[in-house]
Amino acid sequence: MAIKTLISEEELNLKVKELGEKITDHYKDKTDEIVALCVLKGSINFYSDLVKRIDMNVLYNFIQVSSYSGTNTTGRIKVKSWVEESLEGKHVIIVEDVVDTGNTLKYIIKYLERQNPASIEIASIVVKNVHPHGINVKFPGFDIGDYFIIGYGLDYDEKYRNLPYIGYIE
Ligand SMILES: O=P(O)(O)OC[C@H]1O[C@H](OP(=O)(O)OP(=O)(O)O)[C@H](O)[C@@H]1O
Ligand code: HPA
Question: Family, per the entry (predicted)?
Answer without folding.
Answer: Belongs to the purine/pyrimidine phosphoribosyltransferase family.
